[in-house]
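User: Quick sanity check before I run a bigger batch. Here is a single chain. Can you write out its predicted 3D structure?
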Amino acid sequence: MPLFSIIIPAHNEEAYLQKTIDSLRNQSLQDHETIVVTNGCSDKTEEIAKKNVNAKVRHLSLSKPNVSVARNAGALNAQGELLLFLDADTQLAPDSLQKIKEQFTPEYSVATTFAQPDSGKLSHRLALGFKNGYHYLNLYQGCSGALVCRKKDFHNLGGYNPEIIVREHRKLAVNLLELGKFKCINTSVTTSMRRYQRWGLFKVTWFWTKKWVQDKSGKLKESSYETIR
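Assistant: Done. Predicted structure follows.
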């Protein structure tokens, strides 16, 4: 059995999925399997997923788009001890799995990584630098685009809430924190800045700041938001 099961939910991600899968092929630690869960796709995402199927990559297809349902489906089919939920627009650094293996020790129940933007814009670097800072300082337990937990813990807690598609990582992380501590792994993923490019830095920052304040005050209201492709 592999150590890692990497679960990639993919809804209309034809522009990013191949790069994400390629980043897994380039890992220094190859003790892993990948499960791509396409859900409600209307572009070439499923075609890309099928072309990559081999001994280490599996493909599941769901008819309706729902990122939480897709992640749960991947986890139900996972063989690894550790689950790594990876966004389809996010690529791991070559040392990421090795670093997670070394640093995700038993005292931790949930982890993410540092993140860097897929663009060179200063505003994007500053935005992710801020996000990295609050993860590193444990001021907030969120997700960089990659979230790690143990399979047994995930299933014992019931996985992702299928009714939540915004901040679903945060909800899972809060539940996992009942079992251990949060860790920001010392490796980086490269993630798409398409939402910043479409919305602009101010709108994105204001949206997530409101969610953070609501969360801290216990008044968080979940809602869907514009899908950016």
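Residues 43 and 127 are 30 Å apart (CA to CA).

User: Great, the batch can go ahead then.
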